[in-house]
Design goal:
Elements lengths: L5 E6 L2 H12 L12 E4 L9 E4 L1 H5 L8 H7 L4 E4 L2 H15 L6 E5 L2 E5 L4 H4 L2 H16 L3 E6 L2 H8 L7 E3 L5 H4 L13 H9 L5 H6 L2 H8 L1 H10 L18 E10 L2 H21 L2 E12 L4 E12 L2 H15 L5 E9 L2 E2 L7 H5 L2 H18 L7 H4 L2 H6 L1
Parallel strand pairs: 2-4, 7-8
Antiparallel strand pairs: 1-6, 1-7, 2-3, 5-6, 9-12, 10-11, 10-12, 10-13
Helix pairs in contact: 1-4, 11-12, 13-14
């Protein structure tokens, strides 16, 4: 049986790279933004403008992604700032994903600038994993004009860890047999999905390296960190069974996300946002007469660090409350308390609507009542508009109160 081979491919400083390619190829600019202290940011006249991407030389001045333009200017007065052109970046992302699909039918776009590719069994076509990775890396550089890092492993998590090693324009491996040498000596904060507040909790338990986390008592971690404790223990030990979710063009699924204008630090407030997103997604799913079986939640903090977690449901659904409760569980498993700026719910594995074989669990949790409630709400909103009926939790204005 072939060993699983998973690539994680991450565009180096995506927005800045794509802007550079556009300026050179379309605008015929002579200066490459990647070679000078430069950054992609918002409108400098607006106080809320932040740095979205920066060049290596800007990074040398201490410029950080997520900080305000004002802060960046203090560190680097000569910083060349370019406003973001998201339509261009979306086009470059499409070109990137299209090229990857030439190497495997199983490509999961994880974000606008990164993807997982299941390369299992592809050796006969493209050579051994590292050889294939270098072919992809060189093609992207020569044909699309930007560079990527590629991580190789037998699962998605380790592949993503590997792609974050030395940058830019590199290929790294991190197979389970390599984690003791390559990953365990690293600080525990280098582990993906382990934020600053979690690092403090782990350090208070005497855990400073990923290796120490891997060797820790999993039960003790669960007592102190709940579900996240078990998750990060698995990751530290290189355990991840999640599949590459390749979604056909005709079956993209449904999703909704929102960028919040202030830091959300309260779990209840975050779940209120998730409820609103679940309502939006659920309504669209029901309108199209389909159901979904995969639910994913995305969280982006105020430093632009992104986390995503997904699960496969036992039965396909179109029920708002089921999508919401699943999203809440995923959120609880991965959020470590860092201030939130973006929340999103995505769904996939869309199926034609079919009768659901109710289980005892469904009956205990009121599935039929949820279904009837959604149908009634949909009818009212269709007749009188979306604002005709609202949940009581939205009227309490928890987010407005927190903002103050």
């Amino acid at each position: 049986m072939n060993r699983r081979i998973i690539f994680h491919i991450d565009v180096n400083s995506a927005f800045l790279s794509w802007e550079s390619v556009y300026q050179k190829e379309v605008l015929h600019e002579s200066v490459d933004l990647r070679t000078i202290p430069s950054a992609i940011g918002g409108d400098e006249k607006k106080r809320r403008g932040v740095i979205l991407a920066k060049s290596i030389s800007a990074k040398a001045f201490g410029v950080r992604t997520g900080e305000s333009i004002l802060e960046a200017r203090k560190k680097c007065p000569q910083l060349y700032l370019v406003p973001a052109h998201h339509d261009i970046y979306r086009q470059k992302s499409k070109e990137f994903i299209k090229l990857l699909r030439e190497y495997s039918p199983d490509v999961e776009q994880y974000s606008i600038d990164e993807a997982f590719v299941d390369m299992t069994g592809m050796q006969v076509l493209f050579g051994e994993p590292q050889e294939a990775a270098h072919k992809i890396r060189k093609r992207i550089k020569e044909e699309l004009g930007f560079t990527v890092n590629i991580g190789i492993s037998s699962n998605k998590y380790l592949a993503k860890m590997a792609s974050d090693f030395e940058k830019p324009d590199k290929v790294h491996t991190l197979f389970p047999e390599e984690i003791q040498k390559k990953m365990w000596p690293l600080p525990v904060g280098d582990l993906i999905f382990v934020g600053k507040s979690t690092v403090k909790k782990l350090e208070s338990m005497g855990i400073q390296t990923i290796g120490q986390l891997a060797a820790a008592d999993c039960r003790m971690l669960k007592q102190n960190l709940k579900k996240q404790g078990e998750s990060i223990w698995n990751f530290a030990n290189g355990i991840d069974f999640s599949p590459v979710q390749s979604v056909p063009e005709m079956n993209k699924g449904y999703g909704s996300s929102t960028t919040i204008s202030f830091d959300v630090t309260d779990e209840e407030a975050a779940k209120t946002v998730l409820l609103a997103l679940a309502e939006s997604v659920g309504a669209r799913i029901r309108k199209d007469g389909v159901k979904i079986q995969v639910v994913s939640v995305t969280v982006k903090d105020n430093q632009f660090h992104k986390m995503s977690h997904q699960t496969v449901l036992d039965s396909a659904t179109d029920i708002t409350n089921e999508i919401y409760l699943t999203a809440c569980r995923l959120f609880e498993e991965m959020w470590d308390g860092r201030p939130i700026r973006l929340l999103g719910i995505q769904t996939s594995r869309t199926k034609e609507e079919e009768a659901r074989q109710l289980t005892m669990f469904d009956k205990e949790n009121g599935y039929e009542k949820w279904e009837q409630m959604d149908q009634a709400v949909d009818k009212i909103r269709k007749k009188f508009g979306n604002d005709a009926i609202k949940r009581a939790s939205f009227l309490e204005k928890k987010l407005d109160e927190q903002k103050k």
